Amino acid sequence: MGLRGRVASGLAPQRPISTTWLDGGTWASWHDQHDDPRSALRFHLANVTGKTSKAIGVPSRRVQLVSMCAGQGHGVTAGALSDHARRGETSAVLLETDAGNVAAPEKTAPEAGLANLRVL
Questions:
Q1: CA–CA separation, 47 and 21 (whole Å)
Q2: Domain count of the chain?
Q3: CA distances (Å), 24 to each of 19, 28, 45, 56, 81, in order?
Q4: More confidently predicted of 117 and 16
Q5: CA nearest neighbour of 87 among 97, 78, 100, 96
Q6: What is the DSSP string of 80-109?
Q7: What percent of the chain has pLDDT over 90?
Q8: Phi-psi category of 19—alpha, beta or left, where left has phi over 0 and alpha has psi -120 to 50?
Q9: How buried is residue 117: exposed, middle or buried, by Cβ count under 10 Å (0-12/13-18/19+)?
Q10: Residue 7 pLDDT grade (very low, low, confident, very high; cuts 50, 70, 90)
């Protein structure tokens, strides 16, 4: 279903992605929008997580995942890999430059049982 269909059916996000971090906020605070079920960022996260989880589920010998501009890693640590049957077979690298955001996946990855995840 395209965006027009989601809007018509009420499935589209009710709030746009906030850009308040541009006015003095932080990248970490920008990620707080993941907690708002009506935000576009939460909607985007659900799409990314679903597609990543589906791709990881394709049979292969090894799964390697690279997330560029990974932010706090929500799409990987709390999303696609958190309860995926192949999480133990998956090697993941999250690339992020913001030190505040890097701390989040470094903490949540071990809690989610993701031993093969590195944050750079």
A1: 23
A2: 1
A3: 10, 12, 24, 37, 32
A4: 117
A5: 78
A6: ITTT-TTGGGEEEEE----HHHHHHHHHHH
A7: 0
A8: alpha
A9: buried
A10: very low
The C-alpha angle 64, 35, 104, rounded to 5 degrees, equals 45
More confidently predicted of 20 and 91: 91
Whether 76 and 3 have beta carbons less than 8 Å apart is answered as: no
Domain that holds residue 73: 3-119
| Residues 13-66 pLDDT 10s | 555 555 455 556 677 777 777 788 888 888 888 888 888 888 888 777 778 888
Give the CATH number for residue 100: 3.40.50
pLDDT above 70: residue 68: yes
**What 8-state DSSP symbol labels residue 11?**
-
Sign of CA dihedral 35, 65, 53, 9: positive
The pair of structure tokens assigned to 115 is: 């031993």
**Rounded to two decimals, what is the model's pTM?**
0.64
